[in-house]
Design brief:
The structure is a homodimer of 336-residue chains. The first copy, chain A, has two domains: 171 residues, Isopropylmalate Dehydrogenase (3-Layer(aba) Sandwich); 149 residues, Isopropylmalate Dehydrogenase, CATH 3.40.718.10. Helices cover 45% and strands 16% of the residues of chain A. Chain A has eleven helices and eleven strands. An eleven-stranded mixed sheet of chain A has the order 3-2-1-4-11-10-5-6-9-7-8, with helices on both faces. In chain A, helix 7 links the parallel strand 7 and strand 8. In chain A, helix 1 crosses helix 10, helix 3 crosses helix 5 and helix 6 crosses helix 7. The longest helix of chain A is centred in the C-terminal third of the chain and has 27 residues. The radius of gyration of chain A is 20 Å and the shape is globular. The first copy, chain A, starts with 6 loop residues before the first strand and ends in an 8-residue tail after the last helix. Chains A and B meet through helix 8 and helix 9 of A and helix 8 and helix 9 of B.
Chain lengths: 336, 336
C-alpha cells in the first residue's frame, strides 16, 4: 500500500520507559510532526497515558493488545506463543496492510523472530539483519549487522550491504552510497576467514565498495554503509556507547573535583550539550530491520519520547521512500 | 636467568617516532628508573641519538643491528629473512639469555612471528596471544587476544585466559584474578558458536570466571582479564581509541566555536589533562606477548619516550616477577 500519508504501528509496551515515554513520543509525533500512529498495547493503559497529555490527537488510534513480551524473555518462544502481545499484534497490522511500518523499542530478538514469522523474509534474502544508525560526525552512517546473526557467512554480509545501500539511497538520499567492510587492517587480504571471503564478494559486486575500515574509523563516518558480522557489530556499538559514557563521565567528575572547575564548566554547558547531541542515538530514533517484507524499526531499549518521535518520523519517511521495493530489487529475480 | 637486575633489550628502530623517541625513552628509563637497557639498532644512528641527551648513562649498552623491518612489511617473511634486523637481533638476545625481555613498538606481526621462530612457544600452548593493558577507570584490565589470532578456537581462548590470569597475579599482584568473556549478552548461552563453546571451557576451568561482559562494560574494568578472539579484540581496542579521540575532539571544537567558551576552557585545562592521562595507553607502556618462552612486550606504534620508559619499567618488573614460570605452570606437564 505505502500510502502518501502512512500509518505507523507503535509498540507502546516496548522499552525500559514504556508505556509513559513511548506514548508521549507518539503524541508528540502526531501533534508536531503530523505522523499517523496506531498505538498498540492494553487499551485502558494506553487511554490513561494518552489522557495525561490533553485532548487526544486525531492522528492517534489505539489497537488493543493485552499481552506484553518482556525484555529478557526467550525471543522465539515469546513471538510464537504470545499472539496477543503488542509486538505480534503490531507486526500483523503491517502484514495485513493496516499499517505501513512497525516501530518497537522492545525485546530485539522477539521483534526479529516475530517479523520473520508473521511478515516473512524477502524472497532470496538468506538472513534479515538489524542495522544501527550512527549519528556521529554530523554524517549518518549505517552499521550492520548489530546482533541478529552472531554467526555470519560471507553471502549474508553481501546481502546486508546491498540492502543497506538501498536504504541509504532511498531514505537518506545518498547517491551511489559507499560501502566498507569492518576489518583489522586496511589492506586487502587482512582479516579472519570470514572477512577475507566477504571482501572478495563485496569487491566483485556492483556496490560502491571502498575496502576495509578499522575500529578507529567508526566514529568518523568512513562510509555510508559499514558491514560486519552480528557478533562484532553488537560488541562494537555497545563499546562505542560505553566509551562515550566513560569519557563524558570522566570529564564530569574531573570538573566536580574543584569548585573553580565547576564554575568554569557552567559557562561551557552549551558546548557540552552540542557534543552530547551529536553522540545521541535518539536524534535518529531507530534502526531498520532489513530483509523482511514489511518495514520494521527497532529502537534502543532506553528510548525516550524524543527517540520515539524521531523513529516515527523516519518510519513514515521510509514508508514513502520506496525502500522496500528497492531492497527487493537487490535480490536477483527467480523463476518460480 | 631472570636476574634481580634484569637487562631489557629494546628495539630502537620500531614505532612511528623511532629512533628519536625510543632512544630518549631508554635514556629516561636508565637514568630515572634505573633500568638496564640493551638498545638494538644501527650502531652509528643510536650513538648519535644517545649523544643528544648528554653523557651516556652507564646502564645503556648498544647492540648493533644494521637492518630495519618496516611497519607494513610482510611479518613472517621479514622475520625469517632480515636476520640482522633490530627485531630479530633483539629476540635472539632473549633466546641466548643475554637479555631478560624484549620491548618493541615496531611491526606487531613481525615481532610475533619472530618470537615464535627464534624464542619458541611454551610447550603445550597452542597459540601465543597479544594482550592489551587498558588503563581506564583507574584499575588496570588486560584484554586479549588483540590481533595475533584473527581466527580463534575455544581451546586457544582458555589458554589465553589462563596465561593472562598468571600475568595479572604475578606482575600486577591481583589475588585470584577475575576472568570474563567478551560477549553479546550477559546470560550464559548468549553469543556465537565460538563464545558459547569458550564459555563452557572457562566455566569448567579452575579460573575465577565471572561470566560474560559486554562492549559497554569494557571501559569500566569489569574484570582483571577479559578474553576474546583476535578479530574482535583488535576491532574493539581500535574502536575505544577512535571513540576517545572523537569525543575529546568534539569537545575541543565545541569549545573553539565561541570566544567565551575558550576563555572558560582555559580554567578547565587541568581537569581535561586528568581525563587524557586516564585514557592514555602510554601510562602502562606495552602489552605482553603471552605464550613464548621469553618475555616480549609490544608497544603502540605511536609510542613516545614516556610510553617506552613505562614499557621498560614494566618489562623489568615482569622479569623479576616470575611470570614466565607461572605461565608454564598453566599448561599440564607432559611426559616426553
Amino acid at each position: 500500500m505505502i500510502a502518501s500519508d502512512p500509518v505507523i504501528a507503535l509498540d507502546a509496551m516496548g522499552g525500559d520507559d514504556a508505556p509513559g515515554e513511548i506514548v508521549l513520543g507518539a503524541v508528540q509525533a502526531a501533534r508536531d510532526l503530523g505522523v499517523r500512529v496506531a498505538l498498540v498495547g492494553p487499551r485502558e493503559v494506553l487511554e490513561a497515558e494518552i489522557a495525561k497529555h490533553g485532548a487526544r490527537p486525531e492522528r492517534i488510534t489505539v489497537v488493543h493488545a493485552p499481552e506484553v513480551i518482556g525484555m529478557v524473555e526467550s525471543p522465539a518462544l515469546a513471538a510464537r506463543h504470545k499472539k496477543e502481545s503488542s509486538i505480534v499484534v503490531g507486526l500483523k497490522l503491517v502484514k495485513r496492510g493496516e499499517a505501513d511500518a512497525f516501530v518497537s523499542a522492545g525485546n530485539t530478538g522477539a521483534i526479529m523472530a516475530g517479523a520473520i514469522m508473521y511478515i516473512g523474509r524477502v524472497r532470496g534474502i538468506e538472513r534479515p539483519s538489524i542495522a544501527a544508525l550512527m549519528p556521529l560526525s554530523g554524517k549518518l552512517t549505517v552499521l550492520l549487522d548489530i546482533g541478529a546473526n552472531a554467526d555470519a557467512r560471507p553471502s549474508y554480509m553481501l546481502q546486508w550491504a546491498q540492502m543497506a545501500a538501498a536504504y541509504m539511497e532511498r531514505v537518506w538520499k545518498r547517491d551511489n552510497p559507499t560501502v566498507a567492510l569492518l576489518n583489522i587492517g586496511e589492506e586487502e587480504g587482512k582479516g579472519n576467514t570470514l572477512t577475507q571471503q566477504a571482501y572478495d564478494l563485496l569487491k566483485a559486486s556492483p556496490l560502491n565498495f571502498i575496502g576495509n575500515v578499522e575500529g578507529r574509523d567508526l566514529p568518523f563516518a568512513a562510509a555510508d554503509v559499514i558491514v560486519t558480522d552480528g557478533f562484532t557489530g553488537n560488541v562494537v556499538v555497545k563499546t562505542m556507547e560505553g566509551m562515550a559514557d566513560y569519557v563524558m563521565g570522566e570529564i564530569r567528575s574531573a570538573i566536580k573535583s574543584r569548585p573553580w572547575y565547576m564554575a568554569a564548566s557552567v559557562l561551557l554547558l552549551p558546548a557540552f550539550g552540542k557534543v552530547r547531541k551529536k553522540t545521541d542515538y535518539r536524534e535518529y530514533g531507530a534502526g531498520p530491520l532489513l530483509g523482511t517484507k514489511g518495514l520494521v524499526f527497532i529502537g534502543h531499549g532506553r528510548s525516550d519520547a524524543k527517540a520515539i518521535s524521531s523513529a516515527l518520523r523516519v518510519a513514515a519517511e521510509s514508508a514513502r521512500s520506496g525502500m522496500l521495493e528497492a531492497i527487493q530489487q537487490t535480490v536477483p529475480a527467480r523463476s518460480s
